[in-house]
Design goal:
The protein contains 14 helices and 17 strands. The protein is an alpha/beta fold. The chain has three domains: 152 residues, 5'-nuclease (Rossmann fold, 3-Layer(aba) Sandwich); 62 residues, Archaeosine Trna-guanine Transglycosylase, Chain: A, domain 4, CATH 2.30.130; 225 residues, Rossmann fold (3-Layer(aba) Sandwich), CATH 3.40.50.300. A hairpin with a 2-residue loop joins strand 4 and strand 5. It is elongated. It starts with 6 loop residues before the first strand and ends with a helix.
């Protein structure tokens, strides 16, 4: 028997694909009943084959269901209810014998939505006395529900506030204090320092500026000496702070929110290579969670295979290594042709032991002695972020890169993805890890990036 104040949540497919943890939150430690229409199960089964975040969430649900134990099967006239329990979850699956909505292959999504709403209407009658709510991220599905007099909601945290970040702070001071900056306590110059003030621009009255990062409450001034011998050098203050943070080897977790063309991935690899050269780490592991195309993801499948299968997910890595390879070839006056570049890329992969990993491969693994670069992380859920970070042992450092301006995952938004979760966490003092974060706001890719930023991101 469910408590009288229990709620019944009829869950749409997109709620699971957003993050499997949504089910746990809605369950409220087993106080509420989670109802899945059979159409949702069919859609999730289809999504299991997709490479990337969406497929991962669908497979997580399949694992959850596999662990569930059957409590009872209730056969009614015209429909059936299969009741399961697993951990603290109460899961019911409802199947109708006959649906009012015929499947139209030309409008499959709409047909499925309407069938799901049919089950929500049925649930209101079956769970009489309990509050029944249809939960979906899709405004059209919720509209179908409203038209059928079904109470609807989106996820409660769907529009949680994303705080403003003050990662880089400017302090004005007299030039005579410059000699006192290095290794000094930040509170001596900024008594109002907060945990998320990771970097500073010390602006002298004579117009000179000195960028610095903060580690363990102390100031580390950035100098040109920090970037000697690098294959790619920073060209603005934000990039200098970013690269200084990585090269200093002070931080366990570096989180970067950056606009397109800001050099975020290229600079991360440049610094990671230097850390490997310095013997701080043994290798570089590149993790990319991207949703370029659901159709492409379905085509390549999700099981491990050759590099060609994952080519669409590795193009960003190949572009980065190609850029570094060309820099090295020009530096040594080698012939800059296709074969020379390809050979240099292979040389870089071997020298720095660069490995490619996608989230579905991480389960059961432990990553050691590595700089782990998590790219395009705005397309990852909180659950996937937890999965990857929990695979790292104490000998690793993680660089999490993304842009909340470029979310390709239909089931995530700027409020609830893994990148935002980590950015929010910068507001708090961390007990277990040393954390650094920065926003890269300047595009350096060229005129097209600047043009698109100006035209398409401006507010009317």
């Amino acid at each position: 028997m469910s408590p009288k104040n229990a709620k019944v949540y009829v869950v749409d497919t997109n709620v699971v694909l957003n993050d499997i943890q949504n089910i746990v939150k809605l369950s409220d430690n087993g106080n509420n009943i989670i109802v899945f229409p059979e159409t949702v199960l069919i859609e999730l089964e289809d999504k299991k084959k997709i490479l990337g975040e969406i497929g991962y969430q669908a497979r997580e649900f399949a694992r959850l269901l596999a662990q569930a134990k059957v409590k009872e099967a209730d056969h009614k006239e015209g429909f059936k209810v299969a009741k399961f329990f697993v951990d603290h979850l109460v899961i019911h699956i409802i199947s109708k014998d006959r649906y009012e909505t015929d499947i139209d292959t030309a409008f499959m999504n709409e047909s499925n939505d309407k069938r799901i709403i049919e089950v929500a209407v049925l649930a209101q009658q079956y769970y009489k006395g309990l509050k029944t709510i249809f939960v979906s991220l899709d405004v059209y599905a919720r509209t179908f529900g409203i038209l059928k007099n079904v109470k609807t909601e989106t996820l409660h945290d769907d529009k949680a506030v994303v705080p403003e970040f003050d990662f880089v702070k400017t302090i004005e001071m007299e030039p005579l204090h410059i000699k006192k900056l290095q290794h000094a306590s930040i509170f001596a110059f900024d008594p109002e320092h907060k945990p998320h003030n990771f970097s500073y621009i010390f602006k002298m009255t004579d117009s000179d500026t000195y960028p610095a990062i903060v580690h363990d409450g102390h100031i580390e001034v950035v100098s040109e000496h920090d970037f000697r011998g690098l294959k790619v050098k920073p060209i603005n203050l934000e990039q200098k702070l970013y690269m200084k943070a990585i090269l200093s080897h002070f931080y366990d977790l570096i989180v970067v929110d950056a606009k397109a063309g800001s050099g975020k991935t290229l600079l991360a690899f440049t610094c990671a290579m230097k850390l490997v050269e310095r013997k701080h780490f043994d290798k570089i592991i590149y993790v990319r969670n991207s949703i370029e195309s659901l159709d492409k993801g379905a085509d390549v499948g999700y099981l491990a295979g050759n590099d060609e299968k994952f080519r669409i997910y590795n193009m960003a890595l190949n572009d980065t290594l190609e850029h570094i390879a060309k820099k090295l070839l020009k530096k040594h006056d080698s012939q800059d042709n296709v074969h020379a570049v390809e050979n240099k890329i292979l040389e870089l992969i071997a020298k720095y032991r660069i490995e490619k990993l996608w989230p579905g491969e991480a389960r059961g693994r432990t990553l050691s002695d590595a700089v782990v670069i998590l790219d395009e992380w705005q397309n990852s859920s909180e659950k996937t972020t937890q999965l990857i970070l929990s695979r790292l042992d104490n000998s690793c450092t993680a660089i999490v890169i993304g842009s909340n301006r470029q979310i390709d995952n239909f089931y995530l938004n700027k409020y609830n993805n893994g990148l935002t979760k980590l950015l929010k966490e910068t507001k708090n003092s961390q007990e277990h890890i040393n954390m650094f974060a920065i926003e890269l706001k300047k595009a350096v890719r060229g005129k097209y990036a600047e043009f698109s930023e100006t035209v398409f991101d401006k507010k009317e």
